Amino acid sequence: QVQLVESGGGLVEPGGSLRLSCTVSGSTLDSSAIGWFRQAPGKEREGISYINSRTGNPDYADSVKGRFTISRDSAKNTVYLQMNSLKPEDTAEYYCARRPSFSVFNWNDRRGYNYWGQGTQVTVSS
Hints:
single chain; 126 residues; seven-stranded mixed sheet; four-stranded antiparallel sheet; 47% strand
């Protein structure tokens, strides 16, 4: 069974940085495309980044482009989300999820993912 576990969230001041980790078990990263989503209270879950399992190429939402970087370590079966220049509006619960190869949805559409982690809270505040 595929499981995803996020870690690395916390409280950070505006302008600060955090690195989130998503460790995958039950599937290798070479066969698993992984996306990062976030959900703030009262808002829809938003797809913010994605890494292609075959090419390793990333995608980003406009809201995080230039500030966030997704990467993967196949040896550790872990995907990272480096978040720099954090803003208060980045405050949310962050989730990673696995996207199957047969998905017909865009990478930022939550319907295209079949396994989710439990989430990790990121709070940006002074």
